[in-house]
Write the structure tokens for this entry.
Amino acid sequence: MEKPRLVGERVVLRPFEEADIEPMIAIISDPTLRFLTGSSITTEEANTPYSPERIDGMRTWYRTINAQTDRLDLAITVNDTVIGEVVLNDWDSELNSCNFRVLMAMDHTNHGYGRDAIQTFITYALNTLNLHRIELEVYDFNPRARHVYESVGFLYEGTKRKAFRFDGCYYDIHLYAIVNDQKENRPHSSE
């Protein structure tokens, strides 16, 4: 599967390059992002640097990411600088559906880059890949993400109550999806 290069209004989504690996490791290592993405379950864990073995594993993953055939991972770039990633994974061929996730450097939030990246990527997934359903989960403590997902057409479908735990406190996980036959909720192409 050839990985596309998608041009949004503010960002370019493209296959990962070798030069993106270290910046992505720095982004993924950010304690705030580790919290917001559920990658850590305690503040102490979020603030603990990844082990050298884990970082080597990340490097290997990003070096092989473009060869993966059952998922689509693209770098979010601004002026050819990587600031995050968008991902379609957990593809179900029977239902023609998949999971969506996004991760973006905290110092690049509040500029419209995330919304543009999501809209550009989801438009491609629905219109070009012709996916039937794209779903995601978002934690209760991330209302900004919920707002962005809703703004590009994802609909709230329900809540898994108290399904995530961080620092001993339980949090809800909200379920969202966009379905290809709901034309009124489809993102508009920026072309």
Q: What stands out?
A: The longest strand covers residues 81-92.
